[in-house]
């Protein structure tokens, strides 16, 4: 299906993408999460995977947000393709892109599309080509908190910006109290936690704050490194979630799955809609429905709408991409890279996610990715 289709069709498909991807992000993976309910299904799934000359080791790294989905795909792909090892390091989007542009991995996962300078850097590795963005999963970035006695908290973009910019320091600050009438807020110091590693999650939060609260968030929205003063740093989404869970008065940001797994309360957003919006996969899908494809050619980078005021639309969102060379892949990696991506986006690969309680990619996006992967060279 061509990218020139009307925006309404794109929005519908992309909205469905977030439902699918966000469900991936909200699932709690485990070492035994095969995506099947019995051995027969696993065997059947593995038997339908086309290895297409896959061999040896495929190195990949990046986003922690997609780790649960990647674990499922890797397990089944390796079961089907004897002697093949897919090694995915969940080290954060920035780390994944750095490794990709240094030629250390053949595939990177990122919670944000490549920047122009990153595309330029990729051309040194992708001979006669460049790195391209292939969307795979998406979902909400939750603002999680721990505040004894408060289990229902509403914030808006300006207040969140001031908290993470070290300008609001107490939980009973008038700005917070105004958004939470009738709630007894304690005189507790705010402990704001952020990522210590380069992260697409950090970048997407920054983009949201820059667009939704431009007067209060003056930092570079393109930065994957935490740009604001103050606060405390923790490694990865898991590190931030653990820090928030363990400290009264804490607040942090991470994919919704980490809040769910750790039973962390999440902030409802006052976006200007009729009612505050909760961080859920369904609400994230409503926000991302307005996204547009901004990439050209085989690049499927998306432009997200962080300022939506639509009822029930949760605007702190991300889409995770798989990043690969369109041309110039190393010959020893290419068969395995293509076979693996062909599997992850195939009907069989998507069905594995469904069997585990996830949702498949919408037909339009999946079809486009399926058209691009075989052309990698």
UniProtKB/TrEMBL annotation:
Positions of region (Disordered): 214-238
UniProt keyword annotation of Transport present: yes
Annotated phosphate binding sites: 63-65, 93, 111, 199-201
Alphabetized Pfam families for the sequence: PBP_like_2
Keywords: Phosphate transport, Signal, Transport
MF GO annotations: phosphate ion binding
Signal peptide: 1-27
Positions of the PBP domain: 54-348
SUPFAM superfamilies documented for this protein: Periplasmic binding protein-like II
InterPro entries referenced in this protein's UniProt entry, alphabetically: ABC_phos-bd_PstS (IPR005673), PBP_domain (IPR024370), Phosphate-bind_PstS (IPR050962)
Keyword flag Signal: yes
GO biological process: phosphate ion transmembrane transport
One Gene Ontology CC term in the entry: ATP-binding cassette (ABC) transporter complex
Family listed: Belongs to the PstS family.
Protein known as: Phosphate-binding protein
Native organism: Streptomyces purpureus
